[in-house]
Amino acid sequence: MYVFGNGESRSGVDISSLYGTKVGCNAIMRDFDVDHLVCVDKRMVEEALEHKINTNTKVYTRYDWFPRYKKYKNIRQLPELPYKGNERWDEPFQWGSGPYAVLVAAQKAKDETVHLIGFDMYSNTPTVNNVYKDSKNYDRADKRAVDPRYWIHQIGKVFESYPKKQFVIYNIHSKLQETWNYPNVSLDTLNNL
Question: Does the reported pTM lie above 0.70?
Fold first, then answer.
């Protein structure tokens, strides 16, 4: 099982050459077919529908937007969060496409390892780290990088909530996020993918 974020580290990865179930975020459908596409933003759902994605691709969106799209056979409602929290970042509406994509992958993976690619979390520059920057529905390349604290917390909650699943993160950073230090989470390089 592969789950793809849109961090720039995945730029050189030929996703079509990887065998297995694929979960992706937002505009990945411009370049690659995935089995499950997570679009929490209405604009991205609209783009996916305009793009005429593969009819076998399941597109997941927020509970709030789902009634608008339920006439489409391949549109699904995002799963409920696997935990309850009291902080703002624990509210389902505060979850982005990346954390939800990891959650969908964790739920869909049977006995498979979940491989996370393109979840860079931090930019190596002060500006946006996204392969789709400067394109429709995305920030300009010169915009300040997004604070990743919510993403880090939310993805960490998925790791914590699925202790029997194995997660391997292929990342540009040389160490795991401190809050991701679980026995079922490991870090590897893209060279070993």
Answer: yes
Residue 47 pLDDT > 70:
yes
Q: CB under 8 Å to 52, separation ≥6 — which residues?
A: none
3-state secondary structure of 70: coil
CA distance 168 to 155: 13
- The C-alpha atoms of residue 40 and residue 30 are separated, in whole angstroms, by 16
How does DSSP assign 107-165, residue by residue? HH-SSPPEEEES---S-SSSB---TTTTSTTS--TTSBPPP-HHHHHHHHHHHHH-TTS
Q: How many CB atoms lie within 10 A of CB 189?
A: 11
Tens of pLDDT, residues 107-137: 999 888 999 999 998 888 888 899 999 989 8
Query: Structural domains in the chain?
Result: 2-192 (3.90.1480)
